Amino acid sequence: MTVGASTRGGRVTGPSSLVIGLGLAVVAGLPACEGQIGDAGGRSGVRLELLAPTRTNFERVADAMQPHCGTLDCHGQAGRNMRLFGGRGLRLAPDGNPLDGDTTPAEYDATFWSVVGLEPETLTAVIQDQGADPERLSLIRKARGHERHKGGTLMNVGDDLDRCLTSWLVGGIAEAQCQAAAMYGETP
Amino acid sequence: MVRPELTVAALVLAGASGCAPAILSPVDPEHQQAVEALGAEDPSVPIGPLHRPGQPCMLCHDVGDPAKTFTIAGTVFRDNVSTAPLTDADILFVDSAGNRFVSHTNCVGNFFVGLGQFEPVWPFWVTIRQGANDSPMGSPVHRERSCAACHFNPAGPRTAGQVYLTSDDFVVPMIPVRACRPDEGNI
């Protein structure tokens, strides 16, 4: 089995049993790009093609998610399956500190792989449908408060964070909305 | 409807596997371990407002616990490296609905918000203020009611370290610290 990276069109391919490889990719610290997970020998009889939203400009999305979702008491914890790294939250470097400042490129990568690795088949289906019914993703359901979420309702349909996230799913990041959502963390 | 014979069988299996206490007891073993990890009380400090500074208060002060119920509680230190408490400081809360509340630290830096005093609409933001110095928290609080659950020492990738007012070496010596008054140990 090989686990490699590719910049080809957001496709992540591989046997269904290798979905977990997305998680491995996080650990391996793959470069900032869409990933490809493949079976080099081609021995597997079943292949599943997975899609992921673009990594390009994901920084805008991650910055918007950080104050809403990625604080140290929520998804800024290493024990979470959706694990968000960044400034003001969980740091990736062993000598990092939440007070150290800006999110690093490696942290954006790690956050990207964490988010796209949550429900890869469902994410693929949403992307194939051009973002229709994004609430198939627990990421969206929980953030909208439509599924039990200890952090409560973090966004409503059509607000800045919602538009930021859902626009990313269809490949056209709503920059202004992401930027507005990223400002949320400041003390009112 | 669960058949009684299946319930009995399940209990027998649970007992045989050593899981019976976890299934039959309401005790949360993870919570219990966390409480035990806090260690014993300092015998020189009476149980009350001055005890266990720097520890995650809500482990024992949540709704349903035998101890007095708080909604938010924590300890604030003068700076990021010493254990000197920040005394008589205001802890300013503003929640996502715009509600505001002010709590105050005591002589060991502890503060606590009692049940019924302020129940924030999550998330909420916190600012520490003493005299002319203030320090807003860098991110909102979404669900944690104990400061020390996220703010503990040593600082590292998972925590910013203890809660403190300033790390400015010029300001630190000017921050007053006082001893506890005899009546401060009372609830």
User: Biggest interface and its residues per chain?
Assistant: A-B, 26 and 24 residues
Task: Label the overall shape of chain B.
Answer: globular
Order of helices and strands of chain A: EEHEEHHHHHH
How far is the first residue's CA from the last residue's CA of chain B? 49 Å
Oligomer: heterodimer
Distance between the termini of chain A: 51 Å
List keywords for this structure.
heterodimer, A: 188 residues, mainly alpha, 4 strands, globular, B: two-stranded antiparallel sheet, 5 helices, 8 strands
What secondary-structure arrangement, pairings included, does this model have?
The complex is a heterodimer of chains A (188) and B (187).
Chain A: E1 2-5, E2 11-14, H1 21-28, E3 35-38, E4 48-51, H2 58-69, H3 105-116, H4 120-128, H5 138-143, H6 160-169, H7 175-182
Antiparallel strand pairs in A: 1-3, 2-4
Helix pairs in contact in A: 1-3, 2-6, 2-7, 6-7
Chain B: H1 4-16, H2 20-24, H3 29-37, H4 58-61, E1 70-75, E2 77-79, E3 90-95, E4 100-104, E5 110-114, E6 124-130, E7 133-136, H5 147-150, E8 164-166
Parallel strand pairs in B: 2-8
Antiparallel strand pairs in B: 1-5, 3-4, 3-6, 6-7
